[in-house]
Amino acid sequence: MIIFGTKGYLYQLAILTLVCGQCGNPSAHTLRKRVTKFTLFFVPLFPFSTKYTTQCTFCGAEQKVTPEQAEQLQAQAAAGGHGGQQPYGQPQQPYRP
Questions:
Q1: Closest Cα partner for 60 from 17, 91, 16, 30?
Q2: C-alpha torsion sign, points 46, 50, 56, 61
Q3: Residue 15 Cα to chain centre, angstroms
Q4: Mean pLDDT calculated for residue range 6-35
Q5: pTM reported for the whole predicted model
Q6: More confident of the two residues 19 and 80
Q7: Cβ atoms 73, 65 nearer than 8 A
Q8: Is the CA virtual torsion 87, 89, 92, 95 positive or negative?
Q9: 71-77 contacts at long range (C-beta below 8 A, 24 or more positions apart)
Q10: Contact at 8 Å (CB) between 48 and 5?
Q11: What's the mean pLDDT when you consider all of the chain?
């Protein structure tokens, strides 16, 4: 018997101050990376899906961003632009699709 499946991981990459496209407020936004990995016998082997999003901390609206945009936002946060903090990289919590 072979046991296989998927497991999701949610990483918080940075916190930036941006103007929200939904509510229009300048507020903190978290830049997150969602990675889904293929597992065999409960061991994560390789990622097969990676998605990036920003989430407004004021209204909770979530917006998808491209990997290129995520890289630019992460660089902006690392440089300290617009009140950004140092980037993170540890998993925040498991993500279940």
A1: 30
A2: negative
A3: 10
A4: 91
A5: 0.74
A6: 19
A7: yes
A8: positive
A9: 73/14, 73/16, 73/31, 74/13, 74/14, 74/31, 76/16, 77/13, 77/14, 77/15, 77/16, 77/31
A10: no
A11: 83
DSSP assignment letter at 34: E
Q: Looking at residues 1-29, what average pLDDT do you find?
A: 90
The most distant pair of C-alpha atoms in the chain lies apart, rounded to whole Å, by 53
- Give CA–CA dist 13/87, Å, rounded: 5
Tokens describing residue 33: 């990376």
40-86 pLDDT, tens digit each: 998 999 999 999 999 999 998 999 999 999 999 998 888 875 544 44
Q: 17 is written with which tokens?
A: 């101050």
Buried b / exposed e along 68-78 (16+ C-beta atoms within 10 A): eebeebbebbe
Q: At 88, list the tokens.
A: 């993170």
Q: Mapping DSSP to helix (H, G, I), strand (E, B) and coil, where does residue 45 land?
A: strand
Structure tokens that stand for 62 in this block: 């979530």
